[in-house]
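Supplementary Note 3. Input sequence used for the single-chain structure prediction.
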Amino acid sequence: MKKPSYRRTVGGATLALMACLSTPVHAAETPVANPIGRVARMFNSRLVEVEDRVSWIHNRISSLAEPQEHSLKAADGCRMARQSPTAPDPQITLDLGKEYPLDQIYMIPAQREPSEPEGLFPRRFTLEASKTEDFSTKSVIYLPGNDPRVFYPNPELSPAKFSARGITARYVRLVVHTGRNRGASDLFALSELVVVSGNRPVSFGSKVDAPGSLTIPGLWAPEYLTDGRMPLGIWQSGAMSPNRGDLVDASNPNDEVSWSFDLGQKAPLDHLVLFPYELSELSEGAVLPSQLSVWVSDNADGSEARQVGDLDTLKNEVTGKIPLVIPLHGLEARSIRITGNRAWSMGNRNLQGLSEIQAWSDGRNIALGKPVTRIHQGTATNLASLTDGFSSVRQIIGVDVWLSQLSERWWLERELAQLTPMCTQMAQESELNATWGSAVALGLTFLIPVVIVERRRLISKNQLDMLRKRIASDLHDDIGSNLGSISLIARTAKKDLVRLQGPEEVVDDLMEVESIARESSLAMRDIVWLLERRQDSIGDLVQRMRETASRLLREVDYTIECQSTKVASKLTLDAKRHLFLFYKEAVHNIVKHSRARNVAIRLADQGERLVLEVHDDGIGLPPGGDERSGTVHKLQERARVLEGQLHVESQSGVGTLLRLVVRRAHLIARPNLS
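The predicted structure, written as discrete structure tokens, is reproduced below.
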């Protein structure tokens, strides 16, 4: 879309200015108070679109969970580096214990330190999953681009989210190709690796293999990558808590306090989560027993209990507000007792407390709503506040939801940081142009409109001729063949009707006629959309991709992710056409040939390039020959026209990954300043 200039504001500018003085026109966030601003936005729909996007981002961010950095005095995560210049890339392998269909994988950055203001998140890496420990057969979850100068964006203190597309695996491997150079080559650090399956974390307590890790006992070690401790805060969002939990002021440090509850029936337990009692008086202060033990029983009254662990949660330091995750690895029990063996000391006070207890089994918190009995100095007290779903401050949400919201917030804040200065500059330029245009319009009301109309007619003549040829070609290819099929099938239906002397036997033919006619109508609608200039941004393309997927992938589970921060950028007509037809051809191939059950579509930035990925878990492409060549021939032609690179990965029984990488400079329409 052209940048607004004074020549665009002249026709009818006097009348528009008078109308704006009496009729309010609202911008994206706040009403534009001055009349010139209103006029500028009337003639610059692009500015209004950007302001609307900024307003939507602000509203969306306000509804998402917010990271609250809390210091980890112990079990900070894992650090690794390349052991020697010729050593292989450092890698971390998680053993989940059994096979799971994987949904997402989150890489959680280590907490920030004054000496490392940029953090130590790896810059180039690969994520893989496999059913076998040696990764002889594997699926790639994330693969960096071919350009070694392009790095994954630093997530700072937000989780980096990667879609696993339902891949079934037991082992997950992170291979770091490029880290940071801070005295050691390719140094990197992570606080946690969280693997989600069926909306629940299945990596808590998993075995971690990280050969050559930089281990400092109590601070950095491979096992800390799956202990559930993250510096991002508490898994909470939404409503404020009606209570702060349960706090006991013990008479001496060794005064024991126990909390017990009955689950109602015997169940396999994945892990136990204890949320500390937060002290509003201290910014990092929270109370958990300094030492505690966990007991389980198969009986409702807790008799014949057996101990499953002694946990030193403080290590002589303040634990902070991070929840404590205790893996139980499928241990079956009916009742649970948590005993605080030693109090947390603050001055002359000895405190023991909790704000919430969760017991997870098969993706559900089965402790929710169960009454808790606290026993202290022989006195039993019934509590409902420890299983009400609230921490000391807010409502607790699922780990997967919490991490997903934090990841989305980071991407939106990144986009907002780019759009805000652009929006301000566009508003200033548009208001300046509107001011000059209004001034010129007052003196040249009749002359300039004639010049503008004639000039536009001459400029657009060649463009209209080219568009007319394209329309004719598309109508001939897409619609002509379909209409020919309709004629042939109708003729066959007529012959069947005469021969069989009845209409019942021709139902199938007529239904096929209806289907082809419908496809013709949809193809015509796509052509019309491709020629629509008001819908030519990357965001408009993504919206059309969603509409097309909802129509073609009705029988398939699919996801569409847009991780590009350039959604407001305008595409050229050719780029818009070939990108959409590439996508449509890829989806058609999946529907017709792949037998896929899950499809993942992602549009993302990679430096100065735009990446379109279409991944399915179908039967894969034929191993060779004319059939495979014909399947990808049209896609290769579209990639060639876009001056992009098409990467095809296909494996029988695993699926197909199509990855189109195009320089953004070949796609984005340049403003016409004439």
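Residues 1-31, 312-318 have pLDDT under 50 and may be disordered. Residues 480 and 520 are 9 Å apart (CA to CA).
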